[in-house]
Amino acid sequence: MAEQTKETxxxxxxxxxLLKVRREKLAELQASGKDPFTITKYDVTAHSAxxxxxxxxxxGKTVSLAGRMMSKRIMGKASFANISDLKGNIQLxxxxxxxxxxxxxxxxxxxxxxxxxxxxxVFVTKTGxxxxxxxxxxxxxxxxxxxxxxxxxxTNTDMRYxxxxxxxxxxxxxxxxxxxxxxxxxxxxxxxxxxxFMEVETPMLVQNxxxxxxxxxxxxxxxxxxxxxxxxxxxxxxxxxxxxxxxRVYEIxxxxxxxxxxxxxxxxxxxxxxxxxxxxxxGMMDLTENLYRYLxxxxxxTTTITYxxxxxxxGKPFTRITMVDAVKQYAGVDFNEIHTLEEARAIAKEKHVExxxxxxxxxxxxxxxxxxxEEHLIQPTFVxxxxxxxxxxxxxxxxxxNYVERFEFFMNGWEMANAYSxxxxxxDQRERFKAQDALADAGDEEANHTDEDFLYALELGMPPxxxxxxxxxxxxxxxxxxxxxxxxLFFPTMRSIES
Length: 499
What we know:
- By secondary structure, this protein is α+β, with helices and mostly antiparallel strands.
- It has two domains: 147 residues, CATH 2.40.50.140; 260 residues, Bira Bifunctional Protein, Domain 2 (BirA Bifunctional Protein, domain 2, 2-Layer Sandwich), CATH 3.30.930.
- Helix content is 34%, strand content 26%.
- The chain contains 16 helices and 21 strands.
- An eight-stranded mixed beta sheet has the order 7-11-12-21-20-19-16-15, sandwiched between helices. A five-stranded mixed beta barrel has the order 2-3-4-6-5.
- Helix 12 runs parallel beside helix 13 and helix 14 packs antiparallel against helix 15.
- The longest helix has 23 residues.
- The N terminus is likely disordered.
């Protein structure tokens, strides 16, 4: 029977003793002049997936790999091990005859979790397993901690999020999710760069956190002895760049909102905003539809995606519907027939839609939308023409100034993007800021405040502009079938563990 490694059931062994043994092994290596922590490099010529996917090219050839040893089976004069690298894992065949007697003894002393480098030739075992016949083996880094045999990430999500590095080591699907996240962001950049957009960076520490309805985080700038805020959006600085003549700009970056945590919200998250001069919200709809289709094809190889067992087809034209028509369709209430605030309040009471005293007719329409419509918007849908009360930075519709040229993009019942024909009338913008200031004075912590520098920029003149904000994390959730935003953030916000 094959000799198994001694750490197969950590729960039944004194963990402190196992840790002590690992440190003793390290001390022994250091005393013999073989300290692994003095190694500064290792030349890698292939990764596991490269070999497996191109076996005809690699079979019989010598390769060098490096990775973490995840298992080993000692069987006398020959043994098997498995190492994990960036792209997957591969089996190693380690024999005393090929490696040499002393190196083979050293191999037998290695621990699960040690990082090793090997050179050898590629072959296929009798059972059809692609493997590397090891001819030299180097301990590159000694693991002084013990990996769980079955990582608790399957049940203990809290530990998965707190110790993402262990999660990445133990769960291949987690690593795949984050590799896809990187591919998604790279593909976004390729797509926008191909359309002539310029990637820019704007401040995170700001005097006036505007551009969204959210409560900001506040901090203190010691050098200037001034209170500042962390940005809640990218909008107002990117529009300044449009004023400056940069006709197509975008930024992908972290924004910070002092809000709760749930499956779709994290206080710091990745937002992409882009602005294009001389177009409107219809141009932003076309861009969004083409971008999502491109991303799915590039990253997943198909325009039909599945999330939580539900198929969504990005290949078909996306549905376009006004907010009023959507509420009429799903709630049976036609706000075109509701002309006063009193009528809006009355229908809200009748339909058991809760509202606040400060809410106006347009706010109540939006409450109806949230209550009755959002959950039904599973397939890609643009919800257009929002009430002016909830859109302080958006151009009015010329034919009906009670509504604005805005849309929100929905999939899976989630808001995925928010876009405007941007307001470029500085006089109108000042009046809207005044209304927001009044809300702030009344205690609304999410209201915008007048930004005089931004108004000055608008007074210089901003061309007609289409703008949009994409939630990158929700995009990644959908394209990787991840159930929560924490599953697509390497290090999500967590409550501190009390010491």
